[in-house]
Design a protein that fits this description.
Strand content of chain B: over 45%
Number of helices of chain A: 0
Order of helices and strands of chain A: EEEEEEEEEEEE
Distance between the termini of chain B: 36 Å
Oligomer: heterodimer
Structural class of chain A: mainly beta
Number of helices of chain B: 0
Largest sheet of chain B: 7 strands, mixed
Number of strands of chain B: 11
Structural class of chain B: mainly beta
Shape of chain B: globular
Radius of gyration of chain A: 14 Å
Helix content of chain B: under 10%
């Protein structure tokens, strides 16, 4: 079973509008959650992570994410999108299973910010 | 630190040839990962090492693929013989551990097998 899901392949938003990229997970226990961004022809870059504590996590480039345990979600948000935010976004979950610590990336969501 | 270094950045080869991809992780990181990214299959974990020892190679697609980490600062991913379906971007990443610490990715090697 997939541990992390990103239900939208593509998200389009107008520049200046708020953006949300969704992520849900399906693991037991207390997972660690991550967001990465990939710009064209580049490797993945770490944006932010949730380990414990405050459910609202702030990261690079003005992005933030909210951990919601009851909904098993970790959606990525930004109050005002920039054209330069257009990229591929990956959610990832780290959790302990019967085989040790497991780290799984979601399938990715392509964000297009339209001028 | 310069980050994770990969070489070459681009590789074009003919079917049947041997291909070797190289990676230098960030100094002090205990974990090293090899990923493959394609449009069809997305990002796939091929293998990862902990303290130079291969831990999980279940993602290696076939026996044609092999990976080594002779020391803490160098790893190779070899494909022999290469096939057109191996064409992809191959990423190396490293991290302090596999749990709470993020992975740092290299710029990738774009492999084209003709």
């Amino acid at each position: 079973a997939q541990s992390v899901a990103q239900p939208e392949d593509q998200v389009n938003v107008a520049e200046g509008n708020p953006l949300t990229v969704k992520c849900t997970y399906s693991v037991s226990g207390n997972p660690y959650l991550f967001w990465y961004v990939q710009y064209p022809n580049r490797g993945l870059q770490f944006l932010l992570k949730y380990i414990t504590g405050d459910n609202l996590v702030k990261g690079s480039y003005g992005f933030e994410a909210e951990f919601n345990k009851s909904q098993t979600s970790f959606h990525l948000k930004k109050p005002s999108a920039l054209v330069s935010d257009s990229a591929l976004y990956f959610c990832a979950v780290s959790h302990r299973d019967n085989y040790g610590q497991n780290f799984v990336f979601g399938p990715g969501t392509r964000l297009s910010v339209l001028p | 630190d310069a980050g994770v270094i990969q070489s070459p950045r681009h590789e074009v080869t003919e079917m049947g040839q041997e291909v070797t991809l190289r990676c230098k992780p960030i100094s002090g990181h205990d974990y090293l990962f090899w990923y493959r990214q394609t449009m069809m299959r997305g990002l796939e974990l091929l293998i990862y090492f902990n303290n130079n020892v291969p831990i999980d190679d279940s993602g290696m697609p076939e026996d044609r693929f092999s990976a080594k980490m002779p020391n803490a600062s160098f790893s190779t991913l070899k494909i022999q013989p290469s096939e057109p379906r191996d064409s992809a971007v191959y990423f190396c990443a490293s991290s302090l551990n596999r749990g709470r610490n993020e992975q740092f990715f290299g710029p990738g090697t774009r492999l084209t097998v003709l």
